[in-house]
TrEMBL record:
SUPFAM superfamilies: WGR domain-like. This is WGR domain-containing protein. It holds the Pfam family WGR. It comes from the Bacteria. Residues 23-84 form the WGR domain.
Length: 135
């Protein structure tokens, strides 16, 4: 017996990213936190939290199945508040305004997927590709 195919609603997917630099540490510590809402292979809504040090391979990730995107919004608001309290700053993704419906298999990637972030020079620090948020 075949199960029905899942229905994906890409317009409701989102991903928020925050970064901070702990200047009081020697050397400074670069950290990130990411919260994403997506659907898994079966169409269930999944809230993914990732955090760790920028430039380190080992990071932490927690995946949680949630009832709906509306349920994720309450969590999103709380995470935004907590990130602000911990002095993280939001990072704008260059693909944030990308309409996923315009991408077709085999087509060229959109310019924003291959171009460097417009503020890259402003936020890049050092020659080793480390990222920091400068005022």
């Amino acid at each position: 017996m075949n199960a029905p195919s899942p229905v994906y609603d890409l317009s409701r997917w989102w991903c928020d990213t925050w970064q901070k630099v702990q200047q009081d540490a020697q050397p400074p510590v670069y950290r990130y936190y990411r919260l994403c809402l997506r659907q898994d292979l079966w169409g269930q809504w999944e809230l993914i939290r990732c955090w760790g040090r920028i430039g380190q391979k080992a990071s932490r990730e927690v995946r949680e199945i949630i009832a709906s995107p509306e349920a994720a919004e309450a969590i999103r608001v709380q995470v935004q508040k907590t990130r602000r309290q911990h002095r993280y700053l939001p990072v704008a993704a260059p693909w944030a305004d990308l309409d996923l419906a315009d991408i077709t298999p085999g087509s060229e990637p959109p310019a924003c997927a291959t171009a460097e972030h417009p503020d890259a020079e402003k936020i890049r620090s050092g020659d080793e590709g480390r990222w920091t948020l400068l005022g």
